[in-house]
Automatic annotation (TrEMBL), chains A, B:
This is Meso-diaminopimelate D-dehydrogenase. GO terms for molecular function: diaminopimelate dehydrogenase activity. SUPFAM superfamilies: Glyceraldehyde-3-phosphate dehydrogenase-like, C-terminal domain, NAD(P)-binding Rossmann-fold domains. Belongs to the diaminopimelate dehydrogenase family. Pathway: Amino-acid biosynthesis; L-lysine biosynthesis via DAP pathway; DL-2,6-diaminopimelate from (S)-tetrahydrodipicolinate: step 1/1. The keyword Hydrolase does not apply. The lineage of its organism: Bacteria, Bacillati, Bacillota, Clostridia, Eubacteriales. The keyword Isomerase does not apply. Homodimer. Its EC number is 1.4.1.16. Pfam families: DAPDH_C.
Length: 328, 328
């Protein structure tokens, strides 16, 4: 019997989840939940019900795992604990600093309800976290480095859009090649924010806007841009949409460690992602996590989990025997 | 209380394990077991007992996890099931084709004895297997590629040493750069053995040996070299020992997958290792696995496991709370 999946929220991530469910024969899309008018949604999957989010509780018992596709700023802190009362679930909560707080809230709700919840699935947090944990457990002496990009940062793009005179914008986060090379070469450098990443902004201004002021406002924006070498390129709205409409992303986690009696040898571990579509890949991770959640729930493991708690075999559709024979 | 570790076999891997234990404050080296005369062994760790392998059963109850450092050809198939009668243990059994058989033998012994055994820890099988499983679970559509090297293959070096007229030899396995680039570029090529790796041999011949015959014997050796583009370089014994005495290795696991409703986007996952010392790094993986085995045993999980069964958090000395706060 296929695992019945619900998608809660139908933006880029929800659509990516719909694609990921389609690729996994043991998963089946049971329903899509939306806060918009359900009649306004046309899912790609034939025949799948679109349900008002307000009616989600009626679906308790009809969904094996709910995949939450809302945002981390305001949606998930409310939705994940709330939905854990009725459903096993997976979310991609990605505000690193607030993970302990989110974990506690979801764990309380899921433990009380006897459901199984996995938070912060995705790639960072998620796969990158896994690789930090594996690499640091194996190489206790050394340095860990995370680089993001080249890829589109939605948060930074939004910040530019809020500047007066900006019609639309797209921001790419780009690792500094020399920094990456130094880490790969085993130098274990101490790197400032500026030395690790640059920020490339493509901006379409409104007619008559003061370009010099916009550029200045971007480059001096605290937290977002002031600590980085930032370049601003003005393009037409048409060009922006034609050349910068994708959502690529990626990055690398590196551990440069030391082995040997006198730590005389270097060992470098690198995990990297290169993604044409960030939301589709994130959704693919969530789909595999949903499989694991379904199995953990069946085994009586309730409460809040993260991918660090999941035996890797549970993510795969293959049996333990198949995994040992084919992939070990 | 520290986890008491036994090292069974004191070659390169055993010495690497001794180094790895030293780097982990929660692990403590309790004894080294050897089939050689214990008096002939001088461990690097001050005060650690060196015990004859034949007396190992006397140490039941005094070792929390035994790390087996013998070879996969003849040692581990016998030693792992035998030692699982008395000890929780970790081995690095790496004959991929015989893993199901080895697993069954160890599982029977460990289940009967109520011990916990983890086989095929290391990096391939081991970390590379993990990455194959994660990547295929997340990206069901696509191709998986494993490249090894540049690094020393002990088996291939030994094969050359058995040729008449060879004094010593070292063989490097080298990935073909163009093949790696094609996979990284998302082309998902079908690659033959010859297209994936080349083999570089450094050979010191005995005085008066027929170099042309040696080169010919190497290049036409079935299984080992005949299917590869192989280069043979003759060097002096001094040069061989001066320039080729290390045991570097590494490699990459890549998954080139497809996402999107019509599989219109590419996602590439790459995990790579660059190791100055293959045995020291392998031992570092075994040490982390020993920590997990100790915890799984304490939780009542007995029988044979692989790293695919281990929740990643169990490999780390940090608590779940610390991991969520610092590394997730």
């Amino acid at each position: 019997m296929a695992i019945r999946i619900g998608i809660f929220g139908y933006g880029n991530l929800g659509k990516g989840t719909e694609c990921a469910v389609r690729q996994n024969p043991d998963l089946e899309l049971a329903a899509i939940f939306t806060r918009r008018d359900p009649a306004s949604i046309s899912p790609m999957t034939e025949g799948v019900p679109v349900v008002a989010a307000s009616e989600v509780a009626d679906w308790a018992g009809k969904i094996d795992v709910m995949i939450l596709c809302g945002g981390s700023a305001t949606d998930l802190p409310v939705q994940t604990p709330e939905l854990a009362r009725w459903f096993n679930l997976v979310d991609s909560f990605d505000t690193h600093a607030k993970i302990p707080e989110h974990f506690a809230a979801v764990d309380a709700a899921a433990s009380a309800a006897g459901t199984t919840a996995l938070i912060s699935g995705g790639w960072d947090p998620g796969l990158f976290s896994l690789n930090r944990v594996y690499a640091e457990a194996i190489l206790p002496q050394g340095g860990t480095y995370t680089f993001w990009g080249k890829g589109v940062s939605q948060g930074h793009s939004d910040a530019i859009r809020r500047i007066e005179g900006v019609a639309d914008a797209r921001q790419y986060t780009v690792p500094v090649p020399e920094a990456l090379e130094r880490v790969r070469a085993g130098q274990r450098p101490t790197l400032t924010t500026r030395q690790k990443h640059t920020r490339e902004c493509y901006v379409a201004a409104k007619p008559g806007a003061d370009l010099a002021r916009i550029e200045q406002e971007i480059k001096t924006m605290p937290n977002y841009f002031a600590d980085y070498d930032t370049t601003v390129t003005f393009v037409s709205l048409e060009q922006l949409h034609a050349e910068h409409s994708g959502l690529p992303h990626g990055g690398s986690v590196l551990r440069s460690g030391l082995t040997g009696w006198n730590e005389e040898h270097t060992a470098t571990v690198e995990y990297s992602l290169k993604l044409d579509s960030n939301p589709e890949f994130t959704a693919s991770v969530l789909a595999a996590c949903a499989r694991a959640v379904s199995r953990m729930h069946a085994a009586g493991q309730t409460g809040c989990k993260t991918i660090l708690d999941v035996p890797p075999a549970l993510l795969s559709p293959l049996s333990g025997e198949e995994l040992r024979r084919q992939l070990l």
